[in-house]
Amino acid sequence: VKVVALAGGTGAAKFLRGLVDVMPAADLTIVGNTGDDLEMWGLAISPDLDTVAYTLAGLVDEAKGWGVKHDSFSCRDAMAALELPTYFALGDRDLAVHLHRSERLRAGEPLSQVTGDLARRLRLGCRLIPMSDQRVATEIETPGGWLSFQEFFVRERCRPAVLGVRYVGAEQAAPAPGVIEAVLAAERVIICPSNPVSSIGPILAVAPIRRALAATRATVVGVSPIVGRAPVSGPAGKMMEARGVEVSAVGVAELYREWLDALLVDRGDADLAPRIAEHGVRALPTEIIMRDHAAEVELARAVLDVAL
Amino acid sequence: VKVVALAGGTGAAKFLRGLVDVMPAADLTIVGNTGDDLEMWGLAISPDLDTVAYTLAGLVDEAKGWGVKHDSFSCRDAMAALELPTYFALGDRDLAVHLHRSERLRAGEPLSQVTGDLARRLRLGCRLIPMSDQRVATEIETPGGWLSFQEFFVRERCRPAVLGVRYVGAEQAAPAPGVIEAVLAAERVIICPSNPVSSIGPILAVAPIRRALAATRATVVGVSPIVGRAPVSGPAGKMMEARGVEVSAVGVAELYREWLDALLVDRGDADLAPRIAEHGVRALPTEIIMRDHAAEVELARAVLDVAL
What we know:
The structure is a homodimer.
Chain A: E1 3-7, H1 10-22, E2 28-32, E3 38-40, E4 43-45, H2 47-56, H3 74-81, H4 92-106, H5 111-121, E5 127-130, E6 137-142, E7 145-148, H6 149-155, E8 164-168, H7 179-185, E9 188-191, H8 201-205, H9 207-215, E10 219-223, E11 226-227, E12 230-231, H10 236-242, H11 249-255, E13 262-266, H12 273-277, E14 282-286, H13 293-305
Parallel strand pairs in A: 1-2, 1-9, 2-5, 9-10, 10-13, 13-14
Antiparallel strand pairs in A: 3-4, 6-7, 6-8, 11-12
Helix pairs in contact in A: 1-2, 1-13, 4-5, 7-9
């Protein structure tokens, strides 16, 4: 079964780690969010692509959910000694990927090609494609003005009120090579348990991807990142409110209503099924919290087993 | 006394560390070689400027003579795991300087400005200026063809025969801002104990610097990097042979004859004084091997004390 997964960062990465345990990695294409890409120390950093890659490669720092496990921070310490900015702390091992990516991007290679090569060097087995080779920048409107996603997320630690979210460049951006073909050829499209506004939102802001989701004959199955009235992690709540939808699995279904077939929701949210159905989406209550790798595998199996 | 020092890497850096102990750092301008600059991992690396800066800042790895002491190599290890090239091993702390320099150079700042700022951040006290803001590339002709300096020095470990040396770009290169003014205003110009062909040679290949040395009223004093018939360290011997001069203090004097007033030579080379005098250079036998910091200081004092 050919599978395409739209993915953000940590939550998606854990889910995908379960998924490659229950299906052949070679049949999986992951389309990753690049809306929160940033430049730091002159390096091109793609946090979501890297979190997925490191997690699938068994290299991720489990405690943080991103970065490389057992990494050192000597370069960051030296930067601080030089009184240079260090708010986004890059580990020494992590730097290797950023250095390599930055060098190749400057040489004119598209991000998709560099990402594919890194995926091979990390022996992921599956395909990992950025949503676009063009820059799409997720920006957050706060009472103090518009912030880049990382300024909001890392520097301001999600504290400001969220008045709006925009995806700068999305209208001009083309899907990266292979994205549309993969979505149209897939038998199953999975929307990973990621922030629907800042992780999946930028992918959907690339119009041809949204149209391909509506056109594909694949069953499109999502996993809610919201349990009850709160996100499993991160600032999805504030952002969904800013987008004018309810902070619940109902709001997730509303955001995806144009093309979503089924949404796995927490067992405790089973009572939301009728309201989710109003958006044309079938709610499937299950265990969606991934407490350990066994839970990741169970959730992945549940998503693959959905039959409508 | 205003002093200008022309400097290569390790030998020069040790000498300069002695020099700032016996004169006010604020009166010292160091003009550094950039002929062996290289790009690695997409970073702009200036080995000689960095060796001088790290040594004066007390950060240098004493055992190697370059790089940062107690540095870690996690990024290099991660590069190797990705099967990326690592022949020029950059330490994690060292990376901070290369990242910062590279970012600012790409933003359009000249190397001299970036180097001056790094010197301030490292609290050197003296001025450190690259010989030129334009690229001058020292290349070594070997039986296998022309190699960049670092290919010859690091990758090939100086093993190939040296058939020739050239300084690509030197004819078009302008001295960095402040170099000519400093040489002309100096009361003493010091040619540090560095490889005369690959460390001082590129500086001299920038014609206005050579003309300023001939024009300055400063006393120009050198320290021989050759003791007897062999360099204190490095491949100076092979390179001097390729340039057609004797591998001895006599050959050093010959290379600098147009503007050198005095040359400090090893006590054991006192018998070379008449032959050095034939080049119009006064030989001053002294202890030129810097076995410890006291010797660095003694040698620096001897250079400042030269009275003709």
